[in-house]
Amino acid sequence: ADYDNDGWPDIIKTNFSDDSNNLYHNDHSRDFTDLAGATGFGPVSIPFLGFGAKFMDFDNDGWQDVFIANGHVNPQVDQHSFGVTYAERPLVFRNLLGAKFEEVGQSAGAALARRYVGRGAAIGDFWNDARQSVVMTVLDGAPVLLRNQSKPSGHWLRVKLQGTKSNRDGLGAKVEIKAGNRTQTLEARANSSFESASDARLHFGLAEASSVDVINVRWPSGRVSRLEKVHADQEVVVREPDR
Q1: Which element (helix H / strand E) includes 113?
Q2: How far is the C-alpha of 213 from the C-alpha of 210, rounded, in Å?
Q3: 147-204 tens-digit pLDDT
Q4: What class is the 155-239 domain?
Q5: 161: three-class secondary structure by DSSP
Q6: Residue 3: which residues within 8 A CB-CB, separation 6 or more?
Q7: For residues 65 and 48, what is the distance between their CA atoms, to the nearest angstrom?
Q8: Concatenated DSSP letters for 183-237?
Q9: Alpha-carbon distance 25 to 42, whole Å?
Q10: CB 121 within 8 A of CB 105
Q11: Are 238 and 225 in contact (CB under 8 A)?
């Protein structure tokens, strides 16, 4: 996803404990720079062993936040004083205007303060209440459904794609929206994160914008859809044009 809204996709990667997670910023020149340290994304992750990682906008402010499922692979670590544990709490990073990340998991409710042997992570608006929630799989345990009950800080738009020449769900399509002075870009994906598939609908937080100026969809077939002056706070179905 594009965490700094510059139109170029960036990459997050989890790592083993005692190593920082990575945030690879797209430098627009076929190069990526790891900004995990500079943005505050990396240092807090060092004691954790990360698995599923997903971009999401949990507060609808128009900036992609991050959820990470953590859990060690060796139960024996609990028998030693390594500074790590087998079960670990998830990490939730709030995106601060594309420049910094703030880890807010411990203050985001009792469920996120608990420790799990987390593995997969998938996101979706499971209640259709304009808030993205998380399903996390747990090794040797039941999955955990983490309902987003935070108060959204803004408007939103959800885009559902219907392919014709392209695949039915429009997977691989690039969707760009312009609302006010901000442009956001998301790609429809079949799966991402660790052994996980998320809601195929694309969720955009709009902050204070009550409408979207333009929606541009570039389909895998090369066809283009364009919608203008779309009201916020609704799900829009975009069908691939015949030509």
Answers
A1: helix 110-113
A2: 10
A3: 999 876 789 999 999 999 999 999 999 999 999 899 999 999 988 889 999 999 999 9
A4: mainly beta
A5: strand
A6: 10, 23, 55, 63, 64, 66, 95, 98
A7: 18
A8: EEEEE--S--SSS----SSEEEEEET-SEEEEEEEE-TTS-EEEEEEEESSEEEE
A9: 13
A10: no
A11: yes
- Hey, what are 188's tokens? 């429809």
Look at residue 150 in the predicted model and tell me its pLDDT.
85
Ranges of each domain in the chain:
11-146, 155-239
The closest alpha carbon to 153, from 107, 105, 229, 95, belongs to: 95
Its sign, for the CA torsion 42, 48, 51, 52, is negative
Amino acid at 197: A
The owner of tokens 């996120």 is 112
pTM over 0.70: yes
Q: How far apart are CA 146 and CA 123, in angstroms?
A: 10
- Give the three-state DSSP class for 37: helix
* Residue 132 and residue 203 in contact, taking contact as beta carbons nearer than 8 Å: yes
